[in-house]
Amino acid sequence: MVDSKYQNNSNVYGGMVMGCCSLKTEGKKRIVYTCSGCCDLGKTSDLLGRKLREEGMALSGCSCLAGIAADIPDLIETAKTADEIICIDGCELSCATRVIEKINIHPKTYILTEYGLKGGNFDVSEKIIDELYSKIFMELKG
């Protein structure tokens, strides 16, 4: 079950591209691509990526992993012009990372199972998203 906070984020993004640089990105054009698989790990990856964008840690609304996989030139160019690419994968299959690597980009990758999550073994919650956000935020601030 997903907390109601994460049910509908359309009002957060509204189809608009947020400014590419913010205090939290230290002037970098950073894009986050996530696994969005149907299991709890995929859902968690997606929601975590949304939170990173909501909190100004990355661009919002400027690219799409499925579009890159579909070989859409504008979306590939957006990825290639970023200063930093972050991939959040639910499991060790690393599907998001593999898609990005096919366009010759080597992203910084976070794999949720390496943070102790186990697929099919938890309910997605705001608490889990917030804990992961804090860990990744600290690593990005490094």
Description:
With 142 residues, the protein is α/β, with parallel strands linked by helices. Helices cover 39% and strands 11% of the residues. The protein has 6 helices and 3 strands; from the N terminus they run H-E-H-H-H-E-H-E-H. It has helices spanning 10-13, 40-54, 65-69, 73-80, 95-101, 126-141, and strands spanning 30-34, 84-89, 108-111. It has a 3-stranded parallel sheet, with helices on both faces. Strand 2, helix 5 and strand 3 form a beta-alpha-beta unit. The radius of gyration is 14 Å and the shape is globular. Mean pLDDT is 82; it is low at 1-23.
Structural class: alpha/beta
Q: How many DSSP E strands?
A: 3
Number of DSSP helices?
A: 6
**Largest sheet at a glance?**
3 strands, parallel
Strand order of the largest sheet: 1-2-3
Tell me the Rg in angstroms: 14 Å
Low-confidence stretches: 1-23
Taken in chain order, the helices and strands follow as HEHHHEHEH
How far the N terminus sits from the C terminus, by CA atoms, comes to: 32 Å
| Share in helix | 25-40%
What's the rounded overall pLDDT mean? 82
Question: Which strand-content bin applies to the residues?
Answer: 5-15%
Backbone shape? globular
Fill in the keyword field for this structure.
single chain, disordered N terminus, 142 residues, alpha/beta, 11% strand, 3-stranded parallel sheet, 6 helices
Secondary structure: elements and pairs:
Elements lengths: L9 H4 L16 E5 L5 H15 L10 H5 L3 H8 L3 E6 L5 H7 L6 E4 L14 H16 L1
Parallel strand pairs: 1-2, 2-3
Helix pairs in contact: 2-6
